[in-house]
């Protein structure tokens, strides 16, 4: 049975953008598992698989329903151990947790500060209102004040904050070493989010991170390139 992935989209259902859903997409492809993506808008998320305040990604695999990208990766490794692993044993899961914490506290805020108005613009009218209300309540200020990261000074500061990632990728092709694993997909999700929604360039050409991202876009039959970059 084909796995169902609830995948966050805006007004264009062919342009999934959620960094967390992209982690799940890449994990499923890594395992060689067939899946159908169900386009899901912000206002529809809470009712996914019976509701209960869900967030996406969510997968349904037969009778199993799994929420959260990391939990999905763990489920896939546990359920399909005969397929390529997403983690190198339990220690790999623990290290990937660190990568996730770093990504969501360093990379994601930099992207939000540069692109939150692009995220808003990608929604239909109903979801624009929903997104603005939720995010302005969370940030305590208008979206126009949240997006303050496009000056050259702040772009360079955000890029500099990625130096641990850059230093690692100068010495090896993927975060996991010679081949990608879930740790790579965690960080890939953030850069794919930026690529799909915005023309803002966080990285300079020739940056080892940019080169790594291009390699990730080519993985699994160029899955990441199936959605064109924002223009």
From TrEMBL:
Q: What is this protein called?
A: Glutathione S-transferase
- Keyword terms of this UniProt record: Transferase
**Membrane spanning residue stretches:** none
Organism this protein belongs to:
Aureimonas phyllosphaerae
Signal peptide (residue range): none
Looking up SUPFAM superfamilies in the UniProt record yields: GST C-terminal domain-like (SSF47616), Thioredoxin-like (SSF52833)
**What PANTHER family does this protein map onto?**
MALEYLACETOACETATE ISOMERASE
Which biological process annotations from GO are given for this protein? glutathione metabolic process; L-phenylalanine catabolic process
Q: Which InterPro entries match?
A: Glutathione-S-Trfase_C-like (IPR010987), Glutathione-S-Trfase_C_sf (IPR036282), Glutathione_S-Trfase (IPR040079), Glutathione_S-Trfase_N (IPR004045), GST_UstS-like_C (IPR054416), Thioredoxin-like_sf (IPR036249)
- Domain named GST C-terminal is located at 89-231
Q: Which GO terms describe its molecular function?
A: glutathione transferase activity; maleylacetoacetate isomerase activity
Q: Which residues form the GST N-terminal domain?
A: 8-84
């Amino acid at each position: 049975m084909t796995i169902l992935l609830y995948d966050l989209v805006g007004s264009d259902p062919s342009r999934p953008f959620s960094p967390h859903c992209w982690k799940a997409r890449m994990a499923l492809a890594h395992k060689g598992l067939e899946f159908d993506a169900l386009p899901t808008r912000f206002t529809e998320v809470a009712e996914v698989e019976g509701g209960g305040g869900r967030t996406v990604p969510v997968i349904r695999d037969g009778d199993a329903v799994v929420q959260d990208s990391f939990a999905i990766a763990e489920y896939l490794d546990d359920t399909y151990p005969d397929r390529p692993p997403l983690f190198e044993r339990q220690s790999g899961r623990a290290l990937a947790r660190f990568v996730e914490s770093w990504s969501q506290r360093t990379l994601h805020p930099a992207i939000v500060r540069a692109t939150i108005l692009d995220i808003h613009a990608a929604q239909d009218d109903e979801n624009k209102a929903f997104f603005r209300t939720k995010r302005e309540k969370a940030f305590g200020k208008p979206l126009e004040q949240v997006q303050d990261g496009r000056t050259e000074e702040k772009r360079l500061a955000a890029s500099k904050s990625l130096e641990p990632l850059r230093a690692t990728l100068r010495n090896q092709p993927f975060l996991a070493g010679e081949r990608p694993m879930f740790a790579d997909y965690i960080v890939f999700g953030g850069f794919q989010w930026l690529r799909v929604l915005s023309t803002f360039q966080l990285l300079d050409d020739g940056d080892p991170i940019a080169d790594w991202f291009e390699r990730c876009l080519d993985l699994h039959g160029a899955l990441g390139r199936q959605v064109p970059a924002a223009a």
